[in-house]
Specification:
- This protein is mainly α.
- It has one domain.
- Helices cover about 65% and strands about 0% of the residues.
- The protein has 8 helices and 2 strands.
- Strands 1-2 form a two-stranded antiparallel ribbon.
- Strand 1 and strand 2 form a beta hairpin.
- Helix 3 (about 35-60) runs parallel beside helix 6, helix 3 (about 35-60) packs antiparallel against helix 7 (about 125-155) and helix 4 (about 70-90) crosses helix 6 (about 110-120).
- The radius of gyration is 18 Å and the shape is globular.
């Protein structure tokens, strides 16, 4: 395998986007995508945890016996989640409160654990870092787009700033769970229609 393969970075952003293609990690996506601020905060935390976990797993992969690799990977992921959790609690307490339980639940997020097992445990550090960044940015791109499409009609705001004037009547279903499912379904259909359909 080459030392650096740029395709490992770009695959997660579009072709193998963890939300629109793999349809993983939908739980935090549904929960925190009603606000653009919260979505962006979750995305940045996700990039940090996924990239850090990928790099660390790649570093230790040759020293971890195969029969205990999953528990070891979970400990690695939990370490980075704890760093992100405590950092947000210390420096951005309001965002930390808004993200709630979905931030510590990243420990068992199927995207992060899946990339550690399927990619980082089999590849070098640089490619694992690229994979983590690409998948993290793909997740962040997805959650930010969904947050915009939910917050704008659902509250008439972006980043809490009113965009449609005082007389706008919010379309409240968009910031409720059905609105999240509607937006995700629409975006997945759009991606499939422009060439992102998974081939069997």
């Amino acid at each position: 395998m080459k030392l650096i393969e740029p395709k490992n970075f770009f695959a997660g952003i579009w072709k193998e986007n963890p939300i629109f293609f793999l349809m993983l990690g939908l739980c935090p996506l549904l929960a925190v995508s009603s606000s653009l601020k919260d979505a962006l905060g979750m995305g940045i935390a996700f990039i940090f945890v996924l990239t850090g976990a990928n790099i660390t797993v790649s570093l230790i992969r040759r020293f971890v016996p195969s029969h205990i690799r999953i528990p070891v990977f979970i400990v690695v992921i939990a370490t980075f989640v704890t760093i992100a959790d405590y950092s947000l609690a210390a420096y951005l307490p309001k965002l930390h409160r808004n993200l709630g339980v979905y931030l510590p639940l990243m420990v068992v997020n199927c995207i992060i654990l899946g990339r550690a097992e399927a990619f980082a445990s089999k590849n070098n550090i640089l490619n694992s870092a690229l994979d983590g960044l690409g998948m993290g940015l793909g997740f962040t791109l997805a959650i930010v787009i969904i947050a915009i499409l939910r917050e704008l009609p659902g509250q008439g705001t972006l980043f809490g700033i009113r965009t449609f004037g005082e007389n706008y009547k919010p379309f409240l279903i968009m910031i409720m769970p059905p609105g999240a499912f509607f937006v995700i379904g629409f975006l997945i259909a759009l991606k499939n229609s422009i060439g992102g359909r998974k081939r069997c």
